[in-house]
Amino acid sequence: MLNGKLPGTSDVTSFLKDFGTICDLRWFCIKGGQSVGGLPNTAIVVFDSMGAVERIFKSFATSHGIDGSFWQAYSVVAIPFRNPGPFDDIFSKRVFPRLVSKLQDNRNADHDSNQPPQPGGSRPVPGSEDHRPRVKRLRTESREGTSDVATVMGNHASTSRQTSSSIPESPEWMRARIVQLAADLQSARATLDISRLEQDLMRRDHQTELERVRLEITSQKNAAEEALSRKTAEYDTVFSGFKDVLARELALTSDMNHLREKLATSDENLRLTQSSLDEFANFGGKVKALELELEGARSRAYKLQVQNAQLEQNMNMATTELHKANSKAKQLESKVKQLEVDLVSSREKLGSTEQSLASTQRSLESMEEKCSSTYRQYESTKEKLGTCKETLENERMIMRNLKDTLTLDVYRSLGATHQSLGAFLSAIGQPPISEEGNVLPKKESD
User: Which of 49, 70, 207, 384 is the 20 to 30 A CA-CA neighbour of 329?
Assistant: First the structure.
């Protein structure tokens, strides 16, 4: 699967044909894990062999950082399928039915070709793997090809021990073994590069998600703080108004007490002057005026009590809203703490992944040391073989020059020397030499 700023269809097709035969190539615009309309940013490629997929990932691992390469020029990334993965639904509903129909058409074409049957013998029965759809086999091989590096290294180590115990250490075997170890080392390095790239992508996605959540929580916290500040300002305003009302109520209370004192004084004066009511006929009008003033003071006190009750109700409502804002702020703080715990857990997981990568690197270094020791052993054996060949050629020249002049005893001693040389050549894995100087055929036991 290719993801990024994809070029035109012809450019992508010409680039992918160099890695193998393309069975299918589909273009999608993927946003938020869903297929939407727009310019394509994702391409799902199906090859006819697993080797082509491995070559694609190897090319991406080795060339994505090189200026002028296809991966660097178009900012394209090669991503393997995961099980389960976000593109399984798209593959199963939009790619897989098309591949099945293509395979069915190919089978019908092969059936209509009427090829003649093979004479004699019976055809081999296909294995269980041949009954699976080819695309399903490719997806299974792709998922198996991106397994853990440590498992691959363990399999190579066990194969190395079995091979070294069953095959003698001949120069040909050493040469083949060096080639095999070099190929295994290159494959392990490519797999390690792919794993590192996938981990980098996962780390970037995780950091982006954490940054988005952190910004969202910060915005919510700022909004809650602004609401809390507004409620606090309203509460301060209401409280200051309540203080003013209390001050006015205290002033009115003092006025009422003063009026009550006046009323008591007036009542006392009224009792004193009732005896002389005839003399002070106009005093009744003053008493009525004082009574009216008292009623006005009582009505004003009642209005102040009503206003006080309304202010207390408003204060209770403001206190309730303040409590709600405080509880919401506490919830946001608990969410922030939980996200910090999740961040610590993610960092611990990342540390364990880095430790596994370090162990894999150490395994690769041990494999390189084994390769170097095997190569040194091969060079030493090659030098010994050259020395033995030079000695053999010298003996042949001497035997050819002195064959006609040697006595029988000397000839026998030369035969013994020839036998010892043949035994030495057999010991180092070379075919023996005949008396005429010809190389005898190598036995099966050698």
Answer: 207
SS3 23: strand
Chain-centroid distance of CA 40 in Å reads 23
Tokens for 225, please give them.
Answer: 């703080």
Tell me the pTM: 0.27
CA distance 27 to 12: 11
Nearest to 210 by CA among 383, 369, 34, 336: 336
Report CA-CA distances (Å) from 158 to 118, 152, 188, 254, 372: 42, 10, 15, 103, 19
How big is the chain, counted in residues? 446
pLDDT of residue 174: 79
Q: What is the DSSP secondary-structure string of 373-437?
A: HHHHHHHHHHHHHHHHHHHHHHHHHHHHHHTTT--HHHHHHHHHHHHHHHHHHHHTTPPPB-TTS
pLDDT tens for each residue of 34-61: 777 777 878 888 887 788 888 888 888 8
User: E-assigned strands of 57-128?
Assistant: 76-78
Taking Cα atoms as reference points, which of 187, 157, 228, 170 lies closest to residue 430? 170
**Edge-to-edge strands, sheet with 2-4:** 34-36, 22-31, 42-47, 2-4, 76-78
pLDDT in tens, 186-198: 888 888 888 888 8
Alpha-carbon distance 376 to 374, whole Å?
Answer: 5
Mean pLDDT of 350-356: 83
